[in-house]
Amino acid sequence: MSKVAVVTGGTRGIGEAICIALKEAGFFVAANYAGNDDSARGFTERTGIKAYKWDVGDFEACKAGLKQVEEDLGIIDIVVNNAGITRDSMLHKMEFEQWHEAINVNLNSMYYMTKPIIDEMRARGHGRIINISSINGQKGQMGQTNYSAAKAGVIGFTKALAQEVARKGITVNCICPGYIDTDMVSAVPEKVLESIVSNIPVGRLGQAEEIAAMVAFLVSEQAAFITGSVMTINGGQYIAN
Ligand code: NDP
């Protein structure tokens, strides 16, 4: 079995924690990022993990990026589709670009990143695909029709693909984090954040490492019977299923 993992949006936040957890679990990890070279450099200095720049919202760029990773590290066995963005606005004020960018980076990227490697995984009879959705894809969030729709789409993609590839030894699962202490959440205005935290039963934001620990488990051989699952990790804020 190959031990190569690709983590999109791997240089910051939840993605960085996932990269570290997979490296600690013995995988060769490639971290993808969009364009923030300074943060990618800092990430590589901290972790010793190489960062690869491409836009997960660009199919040709994904194909080229994945090819480069395979040339450098070997056949990819694990894909963690973690990169995501918000482009928040109430629908009546939402520009076309805000809608399109959120759908493209959060949802179209599932196809762009998975299609190029799925044949290889099917042929080998092994693979692990983990998609990062969101609590807001489960419950919907005012001001995020674009993001909520994309993240709900990630759940549907996960469940459908899991059924297609189950007999080929490939598992496909998705994680729905609640509010996690990363740059994405720091961008939320302080007053809004206070009210969000007051609605989290455990009384705090989640930590990126708490999501990474679930990824490390889902890629392990002990998790071979888990597929098509939606892992809800949100401190009790929204109790789904
Ligand atoms: P951050 O904003 O902290 O980090 C985002 C990462 O994604 C960066 O590495 C960034 O690269 C990369 N990225 C962004 N756009 C692209 C792109 N088009 N192509 C390639 N890489 C890209 O995000 P979080 O760690 O907070 O979130 C990670 C995932 O978890 C996202 O999918 C998010 O929607 C989801 N999530 C997060 C929650 C939270 O509370 N933080 C809650 C629920 C879900 P660069 O540094 O170059 O910009």
Fold and architecture overview:
The chain has 241 residues and is of the alpha/beta class. It has one domain: NAD(P)-binding Rossmann-like Domain (Rossmann fold, 3-Layer(aba) Sandwich). The protein has nine helices and seven strands; from the N terminus they run βαβαβαβαβααβαααβ. Strands 3-2-1-4-5-6-7 form a seven-stranded parallel sheet, sandwiched between helices. α1 (13-24) packs across α9 (208-218), α3 packs parallel to α4 and α4 (96-124) packs parallel to α6. The protein is globular, with a radius of gyration of 17 Å. The two termini are 33 Å apart. The mean pLDDT is 96. The structure holds NADPH dihydro-nicotinamide-adenine-dinucleotide phosphate (NDP). Residues 8-9, 11-15, 32-36, 39, 55-57, 82-85, 105, 132, 134-135, 177, 179-180, 182-185 line the site of NADPH dihydro-nicotinamide-adenine-dinucleotide phosphate.
Bound ligands: NADPH dihydro-nicotinamide-adenine-dinucleotide phosphate
Question: What is the annotated CATH architecture?
Answer: 3-Layer(aba) Sandwich
**What is the straight-line distance between the termini?**
33 Å
- What's the β-strand tally? 7
CATH topology: Rossmann fold
Backbone CA Rg: 17 Å
Ranges where pLDDT stays below 50 over 5 or more residues in a row are: none
In CATH terms, the superfamily is: NAD(P)-binding Rossmann-like Domain
Which strands sit side by side, in order, in the main sheet?
3-2-1-4-5-6-7
Structural class: alpha/beta
Form type: globular
Mean pLDDT: 96
Under CATH at level 1, the class stands as: Alpha Beta
Please give the share of residues in helix. 40-55%
- What string, H for helix and E for strand, traces the elements in order? EHEHEHEHEHHEHHHE
Strand content: 15-25%
Count of separate structural domains: 1
The main pleated sheet reads as:
7 strands, parallel
